[in-house]
Design brief:
- The protein is of the alpha/beta class.
- It contains 15 helices and nine strands.
- Helix 9 (188-197) links the parallel strand 3 (178-182) and strand 4.
- The chain is globular.
- The relative contact order is 0.13.
Length: 391
């Protein structure tokens, strides 16, 4: 018998013309999806194709964790995952499913410090140390693993350079300044700032792979890459940037992070914080993302960032260009799919489905404006003549 996942839409509708009676959980999922104009075994690009409807029981019992694991195992599919998640999240269906099985996950995120000094290194080992060759195939030539700025860009490389230049201009960099990059990744910001603005930089990362790659890539520039936790930094800098790292800090450590930035920033300096953010402070980290992609990640809300900065910084500017992350993730996915034959034997089909689920579910989330991308510009005493965001 032909597997329904390999059938065309006409064959699939015929095969499912007399479906077995649905369980209560399965009918509940079908009713929820209908609110987002998503059908089970329908013929549109965003409709779920389910070989075994018992998979839907996993959604009720384990939410996105069950949905994501079933996708990794090939138990359901959809032609365009990003379109599916855009519709589901725009209809806020995730808020309608509150699995009892994930109650411990929610309590653990709220009660424990999952990003303490011992745990903070976990994400570097699990995610960023996958291999520089893998990330080089997916990212732009500078290995910039954060949202690009697509306002006037026609390619991923252009969008990433536009973002790096925007950060430099927002920080008002001048030759000879000493700059700290908290969570420097593969050094794209530091390299760009040194090459184009004549500054010297110190960057800290918790990924050994990133640090070694960056040292080799930017040899000869006045850059220092340290394998170090941000809490250990105690030096003065004219400017501070942190691009795509705050998502790993955790709500229990937001205040400590801001205190570190405050003690390290010159009195007349500027601090730019680039971070993904959520719309509600009370929400819980996504359990599938936590388990498979970013262990112990915790997206901040505007309120949580404000609380952390209270009394330490003046908020000079807050810029949201979260819609640009949709384009960035789709570009990463296109690069990933094109390069996959090089990694297939090493990583396997389950990894491919996991990575596809990660990139495209996040693209759908940004498209639905379910999550955001913010750049904050902060000062210690306020810019005397008033801060004006550069165009």
């Amino acid at each position: 018998m032909k597997n329904t996942l390999t059938m065309n839409p006409v064959e699939r509708r015929h095969a499912n013309s007399r479906p077995p009676a649905a369980s209560g959980a399965q009918q509940a999922v079908a009713d929820l999806l209908a609110r987002a104009n998503v059908a089970i075994n329908g013929g549109r690009a965003w409709d779920l194709q389910v070989a075994d409807t018992s998979v839907l029981d996993c959604v009720i019992s384990n939410g996105n964790l069950g949905l994501g694991e079933a996708y990794m195992d090939g138990l359901w599919d959809v032609e365009h995952l990003d379109q599916f998640f855009h519709r589901v999240l725009a209809a806020h269906l995730d808020q309608q499913v509150k699995p009892l099985g994930l109650a411990f996950h929610a309590m653990r995120a709220r009660m424990l410090n999952l990003q303490n000094l011992k745990r903070a290194w976990t994400v570097g080992e699990a995610h960023y140390d996958l291999g520089n060759e893998f990330y080089a195939a997916m990212l732009d030539p500078r290995m910039t693993y954060t949202c690009g700025y697509w306002r006037d860009a026609g390619s991923l490389a252009e969008a990433q350079e536009a973002k790096l230049d925007l950060i430099c201009r927002k920080l008002r960099l001048e030759p000879g300044m000493r700059v700290l990059d908290i969570g420097c990744g593969w050094g794209s910001f530091m390299g760009y700032a040194a090459e184009h603005y004549g500054v010297e930089c110190v960057g800290v990362t918790i990924s050994r792979e990133q640090a070694e790659w960056a040292k080799a890539r930017y040899a000869g520039l006045p850059l220092e890459f340290r394998l170090q936790d941000y809490r250990a930094i105690d030096e003065r800098f004219d400017r501070i940037a942190s691009v795509g790292m705050f998502e790993h800090v955790g709500r229990k450590n937001h205040r400590k992070y801001m205190e570190v930035a405050h003690r390290c920033l010159a009195d007349d300096g500027l601090f730019l914080l680039h971070t993904i953010g959520k719309n509600q402070r009370s929400s819980t980290p996504d359990p599938w993302i936590d388990k498979y992609i970013f262990p112990n990640g915790d997206l901040p809300s505007i309120g949580q960032i404000g609380d952390a900065a209270d009394g330490l910084f003046v908020v000079e500017d807050l810029h949201n260009f979260g819609a640009d992350y949709d384009k960035t993730l789709m570009a990463w996915h296109a690069n990933f799919e094109a390069a996959w034959p090089r990694f297939a034997s090493q990583l396997g089909e389950r990894f491919r489905r996991m990575w596809k689920y990660y990139l495209l579910s996040c693209a759908g989330a940004f498209r639905a404006r379910d999550i955001q991308l913010w750049q904050w510009v902060l000062s210690k005493e306020g810019v005397a003549d008033g801060y004006v965001r550069p165009e």
